[in-house]
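Propose amino acids for all 571 sites.
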């Protein structure tokens, strides 16, 4: 049995597993406690799919016979949404790559009680070793401080009864399983790259039982007690909290490397954040490389590390030949002190999987003197059209901006774009008050091209639309210096082919007798006309001109019009 806020953030429910021999299936029921006079009674939890529906009991049922589904359970909020997920072990399940009794961990996402058995809200991690019984014991605790609990899952019979404990990264489980939109969310234990495996040959059936122990040393994360009944021992595992380490490369001075240059400089910066905001002390190694090692240094980071630590890397170049270089930097934690120490230090920390440990940039060396400046040009092209477009002929109009570079590599170029005459439907650039800002690739190399595509919404044009105008400013150095201005106009043409006029005559025959009869002073005749718009163009501010030939026998006439239920009467 395990307790959690599975379907209501304010209500605690109890999940109880059982085996239904009648229907040959494993079942998990959800119960809630209710006080009645001095007693506490347990009731089966029920829900309504909608207000007028009957209540139905919430339960999980699995027909995987012999899997020992429900032998271990745990509740933890794995996605930080306030609802508990239900973690269920099936240590004898045999559908993983490990075969017989390789085991599995099932995760049922909390939230909507009516969807508890929905396949898209069910995640499975399968064991990999035959007979290991992965999923025999389960626990959870956030040990790295990212608000996504790590999952501890044991396989106590792995390696012929020696046993092993697996620590699954909450960050990875959340990203690889819970947030995935695919309908079937199943993954092998071996596919999780941030998993830590713990084993000790002096312990037998290691991981048979697990218990989270509240933080004993004040370093911000809980410890874990691991039972090993095969040797009558308990191992206390003390946790190492995580630090997020990000490395970045900054350009210094002239961004262009010329063929006559002897060297260039780049700045390597390291930023460290302790997720638990505790005191810590760790050594990390930072390397900067090109075609050979350029810089290697160790950096001690601790609880007082606030600002990024930066080092200038001066790269000396051999010869003056043109070349393409890749400059990159990499971080590794020096774990020697942790591995070799016999005493635990609560200030130790490990690197979070959220860290950015590698960065690289391309460096082009293909120019001399004035040739080192980029030479950018911009062309505007209306795809599939010349210089005109007929309103209503399509729902979208596509315009392309093609940027070409015939000079040296550009590292900071951009285009500012303004569009008038039609709403923008799709555009991959940043919108601001003055229109859109499009950054070029870094670098935009010599002889390279970059195309910017804009899709315009033409599904609701009007007869007042005359043209679409695109204005662009091309900057060699974004928002600095002079810009090259380019504009293009697409004329819009209007057709009346979709305006249909239908006439209806009342077929009244006027005889000579009626005309000659002096008693008949007036003869009435009526005609009706229907004007319809069968196209997509919205016609605004238009008028209809009705002309009647002047004849001596027409004494008077009356015109009545209806526009959108508005009646107009003219004499």
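Proposal:
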């Amino acid at each position: 049995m395990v307790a959690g806020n599975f379907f209501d953030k304010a209500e605690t429910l109890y999940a109880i597993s059982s085996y239904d021999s009648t229907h040959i299936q494993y079942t998990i029921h959800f119960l809630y406690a209710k006080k009645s006079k001095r007693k506490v009674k347990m009731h089966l939890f029920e829900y309504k799919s909608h207000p007028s529906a009957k209540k139905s009991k919430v339960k999980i049922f699995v027909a995987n016979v012999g899997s020992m589904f429900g032998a271990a359970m745990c509740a933890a909020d794995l996605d930080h949404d306030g609802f508990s997920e239900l973690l269920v072990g099936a240590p004898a399940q045999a559908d993983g790559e490990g075969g017989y009794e390789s085991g599995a961990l099932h995760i049922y996402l909390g939230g909507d009680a009516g969807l508890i058995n929905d396949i898209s809200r069910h995640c499975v991690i399968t064991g990999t070793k035959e007979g290991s019984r992965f999923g025999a014991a389960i626990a959870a605790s956030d040990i790295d401080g990212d608000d996504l609990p790590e999952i501890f899952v044991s396989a106590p019979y792995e390696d012929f009864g020696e046993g092993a404990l697996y620590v699954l990264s909450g960050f990875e489980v959340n990203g690889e399983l819970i947030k995935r939109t695919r309908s079937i969310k199943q993954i092998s234990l071996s596919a999780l790259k941030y998993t830590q495996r713990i084993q000790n040959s002096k312990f037998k059936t290691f991981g048979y039982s697990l218990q989270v122990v509240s933080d004993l040393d004040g370093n911000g994360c809980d410890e874990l007690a691991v039972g090993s009944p095969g040797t009558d021992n308990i191992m206390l595992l003390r946790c190492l909290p995580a630090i997020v380490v990000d490395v970045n490369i900054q350009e210094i001075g002239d961004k262009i490397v010329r063929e006559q240059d002897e060297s260039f400089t780049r700045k390597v910066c390291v930023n460290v954040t302790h997720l638990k905001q505790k005191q810590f002390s760790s050594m990390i190694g930072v390397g900067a490389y090109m075609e050979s090692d350029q810089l290697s240094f160790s950096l001690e980071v601790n609880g007082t590390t606030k600002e990024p630590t930066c080092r200038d890397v001066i790269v000396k170049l051999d010869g003056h030949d043109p070349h393409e270089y890749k400059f990159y930097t990499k971080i590794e934690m020096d774990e020697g002190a942790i591995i070799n120490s016999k005493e635990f230090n609560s200030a130790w920390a490990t690197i979070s999987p959220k860290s950015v440990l590698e960065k690289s940039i391309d460096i082009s060396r293909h120019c001399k003197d004035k040739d080192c400046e980029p030479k950018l040009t911009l062309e505007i092209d209306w795809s599939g059209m010349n210089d005109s477009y007929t309103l209503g002929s399509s729902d979208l109009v596509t315009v392309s901006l093609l940027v070409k570079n015939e000079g040296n590599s550009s590292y900071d170029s951009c285009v500012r774009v303004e569009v008038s005459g039609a709403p923008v439907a799709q555009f991959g650039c940043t919108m601001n008050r003055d229109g859109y800002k499009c950054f070029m690739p870094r670098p935009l190399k010599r002889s390279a091209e970059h195309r910017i595509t804009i899709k315009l919404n033409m599904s609701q044009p009007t007869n007042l639309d005359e043209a679409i105008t695109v204005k662009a400013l091309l900057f060699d150095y974004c928002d600095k210096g002079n810009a090259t201005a380019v504009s293009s106009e697409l004329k819009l043409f209007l057709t009346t082919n979709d305006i249909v006029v239908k006439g209806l005559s009342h077929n009244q025959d006027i005889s000579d007798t009626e005309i000659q009869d002096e008693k008949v002073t007036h003869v009435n005749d009526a005609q009706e006309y229907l004007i319809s718009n069968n196209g997509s163009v919205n016609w605004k501010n238009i008028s209809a001109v009705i002309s009647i030939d002047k004849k001596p026998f027409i004494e008077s006439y009356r015109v009545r019009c209806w526009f959108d239920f508005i009646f107009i009467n003219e004499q």
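The first strand starts at residue 2 and ends at 4. DSSP finds four helices and 41 strands in the chain.
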